[in-house]
Amino acid sequence: MPGPHPAVAATRLAVRRAVADAPAGSLVLVACSGGADSMALAAAAAFELPKQGLRVGAVVVDHGLQADSAQVAQAAGDRCRALGLDPVDVVRVQVAEGDGDGPEAAARAARHAAFGEVLETRDATRLLLGHTRDDQAETVLLRLARGSGTRAIAGMANDGPGPLRRPFLLGVGRAQTRAACAALGLTWWDDPHNEDPRFARVRARRALRLLQDDLGPGLTDNLVRTATLARQDADHLDALAQRQADALDGPPWQVGDLEDLPDALRTRVWRLLMARAGATAADVGAVHVASLDELVTRWRGQGAVDIPGGLRVVRRERLIEVAPRPVE
Q: What is the pLDDT of residues 267-321, one digit of tens each?
């Protein structure tokens, strides 16, 4: 008896790997937009998870950014129910206007907040995201264009601690998810925002197609491979930085304990030290780290460095001190 279509088999294998450590009998949710990627994911989860002794449901987020978004979200929920997923939650979110990081980031923040609420409400242990190999390549290209560091060009993590899992980064491409849907007779929704050049990811997708035309079809795979290698390096450096930060006393910190560290470690140690001192870790950017580093590597008697989270860092002789920033 012939097996499933190769694209269907690939999506099912990706899902099996993504839930290999899920507690038996627990609920795993699928994030479904109704597009081909998430419909292929939902179908694979509906087939595989019950065989693994797991329950499978779905969460559909309506961002309210298009006139027919409510109908699209409801249709996606209905398709998930038809596949046998239960429970299926359709959640309407409010995307913050005027977000400094742009509409894509605002929508992502609203979506992930909804995911967290549904995970808690449903007591689910995993939530599967339908990102593909192509999504990973586009992410790497975008971050390279922005001059990002090693951790950033490592792209989206495939899995790890926490409930969010991206099973398709194991090797399933966007063309395969469409092929899987077609083989299973599933219909899907093509989001018009995926062709709207106002969005950076759409421009990256277009640029990637042009680059592949000029440089060859292996570019997507090579970018994904770059992300994997960068992640391995970043994981190793982060672990070394963790050990160095753990070994430091203080604050205050001795300048000598910092100046002898390799640059790649010291910048990471700065971030860890600031977070431990109470800084807002996500807001400690490259500019802040560079200013901190100059207190050690290019000391010219410069003044204090203010860090997000209300901290002020200053060098006095051979000591680096940190204290709350005075209220002005």
A: 999 999 999 998 877 788 889 999 999 999 999 999 999 999 889 999 999 999 9
Which overall architecture, per CATH, does domain 248-324 show?
Answer: 2-Layer Sandwich (3.30)
Residue type present at position 191 = D
H or E segment to which residue 6 belongs: helix 6-18
| Spatial CB neighbours of 80, under 8 Å, sequence gap ≥ 6 | 30, 32, 42, 58, 60, 88
List the CATH code of the domain at 6-222: 3.40.50.620
What is the arrangement of strands in the sheet containing 305-307, beginning at the earlier edge strand?
253-254, 319-324, 311-316, 305-307
Q: How far is CA 142 from the centre of its chain?
A: 13
Q: Where do the DSSP E strands lie in 243-300?
A: 253-254
Per-state percent for the chain, helix, strand, coil, to nearest 5: 55, 10, 35
What DSSP string runs through 53-77? T-EEEEEEEE---STTHHHHHHHHH
Cβ atoms of 257 and 266 within 8 Å: the answer is no
If we measure between CA atoms, which residue out of 198, 184, 157 comes closest to residue 44? 184
Q: What are phi and psi of 216, to 5 degrees?
A: 115, 155
Query: 10 Å Cβ neighbour count for 301?
Result: 5
Residue pointed to by tokens 């099912």: 12
Instruction: Find out whether 301 and 294 touch, Cβ atoms under 8 Å.
Output: no
296 in helix, strand or coil?
helix
Query: How far is Cα 322 from Cα 241, in angstroms, rounded to an integer?
Result: 19
pTM summary value: 0.82
Measure the CA–CA gap between 61 and 69, rounded to whole angstroms: 9
Query: What whole-number distance in Å separates Cα of residue 60 and Cα of residue 264?
Result: 41
Query: Look-up: residue for tokens 């400094």?
Result: 100
Ranges of each domain in the chain: 6-222, 248-324
Both tokens assigned to 239 = 């672990």
